[in-house]
Amino acid sequence: MEPPELITPGRRGPRSGTPQRPRIGIVKFASCDGCQLTLLDLEDELLTIADRVDLVEFAEATSRRSAGPFDVLFVEGSISTAEQVQEIARLRAVSHRLVTIGACATAGGIQAIRNWFDPDEVRAAVYPEPTYVESLAQARPVADFVAVDGELRGCPISPGQLREFLVALVTGRRPQLPDEAVCLECKRRGVVCVAVAQGIPCLGPVTRTGCGAICPAYGRGCYGCFGPRESANTTSLARWLSDDRSAADVGRLFAGFTAWSVPFRATIDAYGGPPGQVLPAKETDDA
Ligand code: SF4
Ligand code: SF4
Predict the structure, then answer these.
(1) CATH number of this structure's domain 5-171, picked from the four choices 3.90.1150.10, 3.40.50.700, 1.10.645.10, 3.40.140.10
(2) Statement: the pTM of the whole predicted model exceeds 0.85
């Protein structure tokens, strides 16, 4: 991730050479708002941050609205409708830096599990009047549509990683967001491996760190909400997991909040698709 520059080049304050506070926007697409709430949950720190930036668009927190331009735009949620395809293109054009936040924006989120199914069947199963629902055939990550300068993973994002990113933003340095496996956080915390000691299936070896290994610390396996780490060897882990469970159960383990990330998706497909799949996958709709 590049150092997040504070101000769009050329935009300066009223006095020559005086930088303005960076204009920050936070927008959402198909999402539950949980990642935006992580920002609000920073509470006291948020007040300090608000002194250093100009928060011009954040519908969850303020009635102040802006159509841009933005020095940094945080984007929550997957792209799931034709209108959202147009809106993310517009926002990209008015944003100097665009940062996706959360599993929905970075990997498609839990809603991307529908990508394996016939969209008409899904709509009919969920909504009483499916004819009123207009959505793309697939829910997809923001990076499938526009260039993304940085991302914060997780469902929801980690307050610690968000804090690190914001501090880097206001001080003009590169954020330190490690790409290690969750396993390393278990080792640092002294958490006994749930997979080795208890035989609990865990995606920690292929999942990016950032959460503090919350789930193993409470005696359950990681289900991959931070998505795959770089060079994640999902093939090897899936083979190991299949030693004592069915192919369908292995596919089900990867079919969570980041199922549509490329390595997890490939593993799900290799093991027969997500749970309950009875219909062939539809072609991608780029409308
Ligand atoms: S990543 Fe999780 S917490 Fe964030 S918006 Fe999506 S569903 Fe909500
Ligand atoms: S252990 Fe895995 S599933 Fe649990 S919060 Fe961390 S990344 Fe997400």
Answers:
(1) 3.40.50.700
(2) yes
